[in-house]
Amino acid sequence: MQSREKAGLHALDQEWDNLQKMSHARVGQLRDLQNIIEEISKGIMWVNDREEEELVFDWGDKNIDNYIPQKQESYSRLMSDLEEKEKELNKLKAKVDNLLKNQHPASDKIEAYMDTLQTQWSWLLQITKCIHVHLKENATYSQFFKEANETYTRLQKDHEGIRKNFACDKNTPLETLTEMLKNLEKEKERIMESKRQVQTLVSKSKSIVCLKPRNPEEKGSGQVIVKALCDFKQDQKGIMKGNEGILKDNSQRSKWHVTGPGGLEMLIPSVCLIIPPPNPLSISLANKNEQYYEAIMSIWSKLYINIKSMISWKYCMKDIQYINSLTLSMLSQMRPEEYRNIIKNLELHYQEFMRNSLGSEMFSDDEKRKMEMHYTGAQSHYDQLVIQLPNYRENGVRTEVVRVETDGKQSGPETKPVVTNGKLVSSGLNVSLMSDLSALRRKVETAESGLIQNLHVPIKENGVQECSRRLVLLQGVHRDLDSIRDEYLRLREKILRELEGSTNAEQTHYLRSELEHINTKLGSLQGFSTAYIQRLTALQALLQNLLQAEDIIKVHEARLTEKETSSLDLKEVEKYHTTLKTMKAELEQKKGVLKAMESELSKAVHFNSQIDKSFHQCDVDLSRFSELVGQMSDRWRRIVTQIDSRVWDLEKQEKQLNHYKQTNSMMNKWIQDTRQRQDSLQITKFNSLDSLMDHLNQQKALYSEIKGKKEKVDDVVKDADTCAASIKDYELQLASYSAGLETLLNIPIKRTMLQSPSTELRQEAADLQSRYIELLTRSSDYYKFLGEMMKNMEELKMRNTKIDLLEEELRRLKDNLKDQGQKNQTLEDSLARYRLELNQSKEELISMEEVKRTQARQCNSAQESLDSTQSQLKKLQDEMSRLTFLIEEEKRKRRLAEERYTNQQEEYELAVRKRQKELEELSMSKSQFERAIKEKEREIERLKMQLEDEASRRNAAELETSKTSMMIQRSDANYKGIVQERDSLLVKLKMLQQDKDKQQRSEEELRRIKLSLETEIKQKQRLQDEIDKLNKDFKYWKSQYELKEGQIRQSEADKDKVQRDRASLQSEIQRLTAELRSLEERYKSRLQMSDKEISELTIKKETLERELRALQQRPAACCRCTQTTGSVTESSKSMTVKGLRGEVSLTELVDSNLLDQTDLDKVNRGQLTGRDIEDRLRSYLGGSDCIAGIYDEANDRVLPIYQAMKDGLLRRGTTLELLEAQAASGFIIDPVNNVCMTVEEAWRRALVGKEFKEKLLSAEKAVTGYKDPATGKIISLFQAIEKEVIEKGHGIRLLEAQIASGGIIDPKGSHRIDVEVAYRKGYFDREMNDILSYEGDDTKGFFDPNTHENLTYLQLKKRCIKDPKTGLILLPLTDKKKPKQTTSQKNTLRKRRVVIVDPDTGKEMTVREAFHRELIDYDTFLELSEQECEWEEITIESSDGSKRLFIVDRKTGTQYDIQESLDRGVIDRQTLDKYRAGTLTLHEFAGLITSKASSSELSICSSSPEDVATCSSPTQISPSSPKVRKRFASVSITLSPPSDIFDDHSPVGAIFDTETLEKITIPEAQRRGIVDNITAQRLLEAQVCTGGIINPATGQRLSLKDAVQQSLIDEDMSIKLKPAQKAYAGFEDVKTKRKLSAAEAMKEKWLPYEAGQRFLEFQYLTGGLLEPETVRRVSIEEAIRRGWLDGKGAQKLQDTRNYVKNLTCPKTKLKISYKEAMDNCMVEENNGMKMLQATSMSTKGISSPYNVSSGANSRTGSRAGSRNASRSGSRRGSVDYTSSVTYSYVSS
């Protein structure tokens, strides 16, 4: 019954345990279900929010220009969010798959939720594709209508300009008409530029989508067709991508009612639908522009015909008026050729008028008939004069008769002139005239046939040569026609003279008609020959341009077909990228060929249209040439498009490939390092459980690290696939271009076997992935092996513990046996005592004999008890023998264990397993032994109890025997038996003792075995300790060796440094000695000049003293002389001469030392007039000797300076400099017409532009004078500089131009004066003269456009030429197409990089990384940074043919002239020979030069807030001027360490202009063009969101309002910076009215993510996030506790190396982050303000993207736009860091 209850309870306990396990499992499953459902629900809600946001967006045309950029930004954010979300969903999918794999009870629910999420996710991805299409199409829509409207506006302006500027009538002067005709032709060229834009818009209009119908308010008459952008299904209805439907209702913004394919009606989201082209609005607008263009061209044609006909009419009327004004006296004074040319010109002009008046609106038919009457009348008048001329001469001057007869032909020997009625008549008249007339007619017909024969031009391969040959022939025919015309006029005169007295009317009529016919024919032939020549000339030029264009196109097409694929080498990609850009630049330079080709085609068509249809036309098919021109233009555009496309693809490919290379190399290096770590772990041996545990932990960490790199490996593979796909697309593009070219030209293109780099790229990525998988597998297997070994070791440890317990149990058993022996001893003592008692009882036996009988029965029972005791003792003996056997068995097993242990020492892992088995057997045997011992103990206890019972019975028996004496004998017998039994029992006890000894010996043997095991273990441990000690000793001596080596290297470096310092000191001493010698020579020359001036002054003084003594001796004469002088002065006051701007009195000229008293005497006597004075003082009173214009060498023409800028020959800044110099020197000069004028007149004549007018008027004040703001008086330019009315650098440049062009101008006197007079009048001083006379780089304020050098104005004038016609000075612009003489060739390039090895990890790192990890100090960092170099050897050939060898450090820009170093003794000839022979490397050679010629750093730190504080880079700057040298006296040298050493609680406060060496504000740097707009805004945002705008002059923080009031920023920038100010002051919560920080505003979606992240980075870098209300900095940990940031956001903020590079470095022009900008800053010494270095040219050789065109505030050219651009006389316009001469200047 009890057993059944126990079984039931046991079953109940098991059931309870099972229920608890099931309950715990079910709770875990429920928690997993809850977590996974929550995550999936959050994902679904996130997707639904994004979907809802996109579905309700209106893609119509309302505010399209505003929402397109906003939507593009939000779309990019959405895509980035989707990328991040995809990673989260992949992790979620892995969790779901794991739950489904483990057969979660709610698998169907989880799967349903996950399917819903995946469906929603797929739908969102479809929506993003639709958004992409909408963005693309709507952006095209917006751009099209913007361009179309701009084109229409431009066409309107052109229309109005043509109608307004080219209207003419008969009162318009001929010169004006000619100028209008030229301008009209130029206007046509400008209008033709709009043709391509119009055609492009027409072609684009057909592909513009419709947006108007998307608005439900727009009700159209017809059906609206919509097109699906993606697949959509709803209620068994669906529409596929690309299917079209009919829009029924679009009143809902999110969903439209559409009739789909098959007539099914459904509601479809509007974002999935697009209204496809055509768009009637775009097509109508494009056609409207095209029609407008055609209308403008027709108006132009009408105006062109009108002006040309008007010009012809003017010329014709001029000839008619002149002929009508002729008289016989005038005609008699002319040679026959002269008056024949008059009538000839009349006929040519009349014929030209008749041709040009066709289609003209200026002349009606009546006016043409009236013109014909005028022409006929003029001809008749001329004929009358010619007929009367011989009689007039005969009656008047008879000497001319011979000359007249000589001009005419001799009629023959039979002609006999006879005078009849005063008229000359010939008897052979008719025959002679008829023969001459017929001969003339034959000549005309011959010329006509020659003209007709040469009209046909067979256009073949030698078309240009054929045109040239035919052109020569036509020109010969044209000359023949001119000679025939002259002969015709002579014959006509003779016939008219002869017909004057003729009475034969028929003969007269015939001759006149013949003459008229010949005249008409000649006029027609001459006109047609001219048209043919013009057309043939245009055709020849067209063919030449076609050939030239075809050559250019073929060359570039061939170059484009050379490449069939890309490369994996970044250098090759960059090289081909540069080649493409060069090709693009070449095409842009040669674009004039294309324009010339189109222009010549239009000329040929124009001249062909002027030929009369009745005459023979040239059979050249001009439409064929139009097709050729169009084909060439299309091929040209295809080349340009192909180059642009390739450049874009290569830029994208270069970025992708660079990113892939970096990540791939990083992963390869990581895999290699990790494999080495894995190998080192696997070869490591361990001999203890703790070491195995540490080893397992290390392997676990390594395995986790390897497993965590899977995403990065996948990213590398994705990058490889992206690069491969990009290369494939690029190859497809190249192949399609080559195929299209092959089809177009019908020419097979040779192709090679393409080996795509994409295959290699994918293979490389696959190898990387396979190596990673191999490493992951190895790590996983080894980790599992270690885990199993750990488990086995733990089991072994447990078994060892059990053995220890067994041994402890054996010891306890021994103690028990010892106690049992003691008990036996006690038993023996009891027996002895019993014996004594028996002896006593024996004595009493006699008395107890009677009692024996009564106790006989009791004795018998006692005997039986003794018998039973004996049997029990026997059993005990048997049990002892069994125990002995067990002990012997245990000894045997122990011996077996010893043998197995020996085998375990030979094979470690096998021994472990065998030992495990033996230990199991030992444990079993030990457990059996324990059970036997326990049973033995129980038996002993039982025997003990029996012995105690027997003792009690014996006591009872003794009592009985004492009572009766009868029992004594029997008791004696019994006693004897008992004694015997006792003896036998003692023997048994002895045997038991022997067994006990044997057991002890076996235990000792077991203990010895265990001891031997422990000894072996200790021996192994000792050996391991010795190995560890040896390793430690080895590492110690290795570290000592490395330390010694480092000390040796340090000592060598110190030695080299000392040598370099010594060499630099020697070079410095030499330089100072040379400067001292130059100063001594300069002062000696000045001393000699001073002595010479003193001697001259002494002579003058002596002369004056002599004259004074003579005057004192003659007082009367002196009085008379004084009176005379006074009268002369009075008379000369009334005379003035013309100055620069007004009249100048003679007294003013005398005061200015331009005239003396003798000149006034001459004026008074009339010997000298004002004209003579003006001629003599022309250089002082008239124009200036400044640079007047530009000479274009390529086109051999003279241009005004402003026109040269408009033609693209000059930069904007250079133009402003030269024009300011002209204005400051007196006048603006027209070099073409040699006219000087004021700025206002020059602006009216378009010699200067409106953009320069105000600045030139300001410069003109240097002539007219400036107004003193204090007194209102007129002051000079120098005084204006002194009073800071004009900026000093700008004023010095104008002053230099005045001096270089003739002298300083006195604004009051309106003339120039000498320097000494300027000293006396206060218009100049010695200090300014020193500044202007110093020829350092900072005094060179003018730019040479040919050599790109900075020069003084005088140096620039020396490079000018003089115009031989006008005598003006012109700046020549060299022909850039000519080969340049100066070349620079790279010879060698050697790099040296310093690598530091981490002693702990053995990893290599750069010098900067070692400094940031605090492995080296700052001095070592600077020293090692200087040792890093990139040496390059270059050869520079100058224009005179001389060559110089330089070595240049490309890293720092330092360069050394080898010849100069040799001359200065820095190196010797032997060292140079070794270098050239190759014994010395480039690094060693450069090290020798730099060690002896090292230069010290120059930093600029001044107490003035306007000056620069600190320069941290060792830039070598030459000392500028004497003024600048004075400023350098207070310079201190301060290096800028990394930003974390200085106060980080301040952002970048100012910009350091390295060209002008000054500290400026960020907006000022933006205006100068050295900082771009985005970078300037980001730098200002960093200031505002951390406290306010920084005033660099005072260091104060200002609010936006105060900064605007102080003109630090403008209003536009203030508006842009308002979000940043809120990030500092806080965003006000609408509900709680609490100020939220930037992080909280980001979480509430009140601040866009990108801007908010940017503000947080700015605040974190400058000390921590800001709490708005208290303006207290908050650490990252506190921000996390407050809930501002999550872990991911905090980690992103702390990862400063991966900050977004949203700034462009103003110095290197590379992309940098704000952290890098702060690291690169210089620090002002007095207040710690950070300054970012900036320059207009990149220090990396990259042109500045913000200085492409020189503006008013640009660096290139004038720096006049900057009012703070110059300090202390420095007028530096730009800096040339490529000079071969470098200076090192150290202030004392």
Provide an overview of this structure.
The chain has 1788 residues and is of the alpha+beta class. Helix content is 65%, strand content 8%. Strand 34 (1627-1628) and strand 35 (1635-1636) form a beta hairpin. Helix 5 (280-324) packs parallel to helix 8 and helix 18 (757-843) runs parallel beside helix 21 (908-963). The two termini are 115 Å apart. 28% of the residues are buried.
Quick overview of this protein structure:
With 1788 residues, the protein is an alpha+beta fold.
What is the number of beta strands?
Answer: 41
Oligomeric composition of the shown chains = single chain
SS strand fraction = 5-15%
Q: Summarize the amount of helix as a percent range.
A: 55-70%
- Count of helical regions: 52
The main sheet orders its strands as: 6-5-4-1-7
Instruction: Report the sheet with the most strands, covering strand number, pairing sense and barrel closure.
Output: 5 strands, antiparallel
| CA radius of gyration | 58 Å
Which spans have pLDDT < 50 for at least 5 consecutive residues? 397-429, 1114-1131, 1379-1390, 1494-1542, 1740-1788
Termini Cα gap: 115 Å
Envelope shape: elongated
* Overall pLDDT level: 75
Which structural class do you get from the secondary structure elements?
alpha+beta
